[in-house]
Design brief:
11 helices, 2 domains, three-stranded antiparallel β-sheet, alpha+beta, single chain, BirA Bifunctional Protein, domain 2, about 375 residues
């Protein structure tokens, strides 16, 4: 047993003196490997008398545990020291100016978000934000969308089970919001008119092609008071498209349409010039549909807890990704989400290129695509 104690002290001393993880592993193999010193002693237990076998076996098990504990502690210490050394050698002074060729870029959607908020902010709109996962009341029912509405079908909407333990029931399940219109209802529930908000954010639908992706971005607008009319809606949107495309004048027209949450409803077109190689906003004899709008349906006002006999208002919705494609000449929506640094370097913006109505929305004026 005296030899066992000497072996223990020798192995533990070697472990503490191991200079790196590789040397430590070699010590482990020499002690605990198939032909290691401790393993050989374990193999010799069978030749010992019964009483001595039990006593020696206990001591060898204790020795193995002490060696394993020492190996683990030393390995942690060596790995921590190695990591700290690596971090110290690879440290970067973040106060130094970045190299121009490595400068990060702001995504076009983030830039458009800033532009839209800046324009409507000057008009007196507040920004309302809400959950990406909605209940069906706020996403569909309160917006006057009946159970058989096509937008509620599973091929168009992403549904989430309402319970992990019960069978899937589409009528009870949550949805990943298909529009930000749910924030209109949540705002009406939370505050009394007058209301003037925009609700930008991510939305999700089961679609994928050059002009549609499963995740995209929208901004909804809502104005409610006692005197708002369709003329106010038209004036608001006209001022918006002029400011957004940075044009002094822009032809617009409104075509009758249908949306379950507005009545009357319309789609807004802007004048443009289309050729095989160019789309120019604000000139020419062609038209380009840009957004949907209308007067808030009385049923929607009721769902939000507002008396439609006393209040009325208007609402509109437009895709931020579509606005980015039009303003900055981006041909395919799918490239927005492919994380291609080369694409972002081409279409992105400088990090400090903030959008404001006084400082300017963009650098290129956004007229020729």
């Amino acid at each position: 047993m005296e030899n066992l104690e000497n072996l223990k002290q020798q192995i533990l001393s070697n472990i503490q003196q191991a200079p790196d993880v590789k040397a430590l592993d070699e010590i482990r193999v020499s002690a605990m490997g198939k032909k290691g010193a401790v393993t050989e002693l374990m193999k010799g237990l069978g030749a010992l008398p019964q009483d001595e076998k039990i006593e020696t076996g206990k001591k060898l098990n204790v020795l193995k545990q002490e060696i394993e504990s020492a190996l683990s502690a030393r390995k942690d210490a060596l790995e921590t020291a190695e990591l700290n050394q690596k971090l110290a050698s690879e440290s970067v002074d973040v106060t130094l100016p970045i190299r121009p060729e490595n400068q990060g870029r702001i995504h076009p959607v983030s830039k458009i978000y800033e532009e839209v908020v800046a324009i409507f902010g000057q008009m007196g709109f507040d920004v309302a934000e809400g959950p990406d996962i909605e209940d069906q009341f706020h996403n569909f029912n309160a917006l006057n969308m009946p159970a058989n509405h096509p937008a509620r079908q599973m091929q168009d909407t992403f549904y989430l089970p309402h319970s992990a333990t019960e069978p899937f029931d589409m009528d009870k399940s949550y949805v990943i919001r298909t529009h930000t219109s749910g924030m209109q209802i949540r705002t009406m529930e939370a505050q009394k008119p007058p209301i003037r908000i925009i609700a930008p954010g991510r939305t999700y639908r089961s679609d994928y092609d050059a002009t549609h992706t499963p995740m995209f971005h929208q901004v909804e607008g809502l104005v409610i008071d006692k005197t708002t009319t369709l003329a106010h809606l038209k004036g608001c949107l006209y001022d918006f498209v002029k400011a957004f495309f940075e044009l002094d004048e822009i032809p617009v027209r409104y075509r009758p349409s249908y949306f379950p949450f507005t009545e009357p409803s319309a789609e807004m077109d802007i004048g443009c010039l289309k050729t095989k190689t160019e789309l120019k906003i604000g000139a020419g004899n062609d038209w380009l549909e840009i957004l949907g709008c209308g007067m808030v349906h009385p049923n929607v006002l009721k769902a939000g807890g507002i008396d439609p006999d006393e209040y009325q208002g208007f609402a509109f919705g437009v895709g931020l990704d579509r606005l980015a494609m039009l303003k900055y000449g981006i041909p395919d929506l799918r490239t927005f989400f492919e994380s291609d640094v080369r694409w972002l370097k081409n279409y992105g913006f400088a990090p400090l290129d903030f959008s404001s109505m006084t400082g300017g929305l963009s650098n290129n004026g956004g007229q020729t695509r």
